[in-house]
Amino acid sequence: MKDIKSYISDNKDRFLSELFDLLKIPSVSADPAFSKDVIKAAQKIKESLLHAGCNLVEICETKGFPIVYGEKIIDKNLPTVLVYGHYDVQPADPIELWDSPPYEPIIKKTDKHPDGAIFARGACDDKGQMYMHVKALEFMVKTNQLPCNVKFMIEGEEEVGSNNLGIFVAENKEKLKNDIILISDTGMIANDIPSITTGLRGLSYLEVEVTGPNRDLHSGLYGGAVANPINILTKMIASLHDENNHVTIAGFYDKVEELSREERAQMAKAPFSLENYKKTLNINAIYGEEGYTTNERNSIRPTLDVNGIWGGYIGEGAKTVIASKAYAKISMRLVPNQDWEEITQLFKTHFEKIAPKAVNVKVTPHHGGQGYVTPINTIGYSAASKAYEATFGKKPIPQRSGGSIPIVALFEKELNSKTILMGFGLNSDAIHSPNEHFGVWNYLKGIETIPYFYKYFTELSK
Questions:
Q1: Residue 428 gets which letter from DSSP?
Q2: 332: Cβ–Cβ under 8 A, 6 or more apart, which residues?
Q3: pLDDT band for position 423 (50/70/90)?
Q4: Structure pTM?
Q5: What is the CATH number for 337?
Q6: What is the pLDDT of residue 258?
């Protein structure tokens, strides 16, 4: 693309400043205390899309937080790219583990980001990566190099399950009509090893509640005579995996796709250092399902994990109490062919079955979504591959991700569109964790690479 590097160089400080303004807004969709900030972030996205060159931008209301829709239509006979992203973020808790305030973005150097990384909640997931697309559009419009039509759909509920996005998509199929969907909410192997995500795991997220006596009890007077919900819950959770770390729920693996030796061998070609992996996480050994490598465990195999557990007294000092209730939040990452609603029901049936009669169990599903695999023999994948080659100087490696973006499968179902996942973050960027960050180099490299996707997709579509 003509002058792309010089345009980025001339506008680098502004690109960073604008992103910082967005990152300063604590748009936490999961916490009602931040509702006004989520709305404020939506308005900020609208302003940014208008400034970038969209000729129509709307804040579309839903039963939850709004969806920002924008478009730049230059010729209806040309292909249309639909960009999806989200402006909501995960809660910053635990705040005390951040080295700098989560909503006061700052640039600091790291081992993986010697040119500096932007530390803030949402820096990588997904404000920074979403905003690359806004700035890429700005470049193409300002320099008159936009080769096709572009639409934006930026939502504010991705981190809480995108409950209203499916309704919006189903009701606006003509508005959202496109030839390809482009998303940057994933990562790549390393800054010198570009990769394209070709698979995502599905998700089932739920909460369990175990109730024993009708009130908290004195552990001296009642201990050993009534069921302790916390003891029971921990035993039930422990039983969900066997000695080989297989999930013990009946039917859990029935529809799991087993990859061939050839496919697993192709995956194994991706550079990976087990020692560096352990060193980065400060662990002495890896742990997981027997018979699979680390990279297979976190991408092509389903999982079950406890995301939170609580009950009883956790304040300062001692309180000898048997709690009336105990709770846990549990998520299952699923692979293609596993239906998240079916798995949720299997879990519910199993968990209720293994509960002793001394307690009552309640299972509450929260949200979920299907897994997704995108083929590598499409025009969209070829365009993305050529785009990375243009800016990185080497072909990207296709890889499956362990993460979930449930709406990707929904897009294919409702809009009949394939999705290309062009992520520029790194696994070390601490998304969803304290000290989340996104490399300055990665942010600018995304802005440089994305316009090439438009160029090659338009050319290949002819």
A1: G
A2: 203, 204, 205, 247, 302, 303, 304, 305, 343, 347
A3: very high
A4: 0.82
A5: 3.30.70.360
A6: 85
